[in-house]
Amino acid sequence: MNRKINILLAEDDDNLGLLLHSFLRTKGYHVELVRNGKVAFERFNSSAFDFCIFDVMMPEMDGFTLAKEIRELDKKVPILFLTAKSMKDNKLEGFAAGGDDYMTKPFSMDELLARIEAILRRTDVNTEEAEFYEIGKIKYDPISRLLFTSQPDPIKLTTKENQLLHLLCKNQNEILDRQATLRAVWGDDNYFNGRSMDVYIAKLRKLLKEDENIEIMNVHGKGFQMLVR
Q1: Which of 69, 100, 123 lies at the terminal end of a domain, its last residue?
Q2: Looking at the whole model, is its pTM more than 0.85?
């Protein structure tokens, strides 16, 4: 059976947010509603989402800034913007921030549904199974935080080990931005958190070392790159 598409909905208008939440759930989607960009960023980095719907004007972090932060960590997840503005420049800014589509309020629920379905078809989101990664000879389940190596029992990852490895897997063979990763996992990109992240990266290298084709590289001045040959 196909799993439900998991949608992150960030909308600071309580009435519209609840209306969208209820409507999309009746259409078979799993929806998590948050009311500002900062919380949306935190939720995105602690759960697995297949689709994002962001209001542009939100407190603490606007939708465009939120999308830019997410695009540093996930190049593929579809993002649909909602805005009361219809100026051409706003639309261009939305696409520049990494958005896949743009809807101007007010809009009909049927049009929203059609846009979501069109984007999902275009981006080919896999609904057949939950996220599961094969990293060379090693298998990894981010939902249960389990790493399957040649050892008899799977390895249970800590929360931060799991968040880091999940980000590396979603950006496999690409450079993962250091500062964005710190903000996503530690909430702040200060020096002390940076030192802590380096320790966790070293732990992940040890956990993956049984497959010599896997390498987590430091890319000077940029971040990390997990290469799987």
Answers
A1: 123
A2: no
